[in-house]
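Hey team,

Filing this mostly as a record. A colleague (T.K.) asked me to run one chain through the structure pipeline before their review meeting, and I want the input and output archived in the tracker in case anyone asks later how it was produced. No errors, nothing strange. Just documentation.

Input sequence:
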Amino acid sequence: MQKHDAQPLKEFVAHLFPRKVRAEDLRLSYTFCLGGLSLTAFAILLLSGLLLLVYYQPTPETAFSSILYLESHVFGGRYIRSLHRLSSHVFLVLVILHALRVLLTGAYRKPRELNWLVGFGLLCLCLFEAYTGYLLPMDQLGFWAAKTGLTLLESLPFGGVLRELLAPDGIRGGLTLLRFYVVHVVLVPLCMIALTSLHFYRIRKNRGLLPYL
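Output structure:
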């Protein structure tokens, strides 16, 4: 491996294990590690979501019954589903608080404008991810949440086109559930992982956490 190829890896290791730490960087505050806590909640969501995929069946006829089977017949199934749901709430709260901290402290100013846009994109993806997850159990809560969201979507420019992409055969349709499922499980998480990696990379390049590295 050439020297320039190993440099990003060395920078990453140095970021995780700095040789020295300033005393002021060790002081706790009300906004201590909101970004890191958000990342932890996101990791819990990914892990618990993967476990839920083992039993979930993305069809209108079997989605709700598969959730009932998971909660009543699978060991730890109710705990995993509750963990996934509660982690999503905590994740949203932490991301919003993190965004507020950036706004109130002016951390979006130069040279961090790009990272602010990346973070705002992550916030939008988090909200969209939570919305698409509501329909998957195919219960009354998911039905009305999806219906309300799609109705609001139609008021936006090109909202009708977006609604047709998400729900081509109605909220109870099999194709709609499949698209919500693919978006929730594959597309949005991959986009979030990519933006999160870019977000932390820009923090490192802007020397936002440990300016002496």
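Quick notes for T.K.: The chain has one domain: 32-205. The mean pLDDT is 85.
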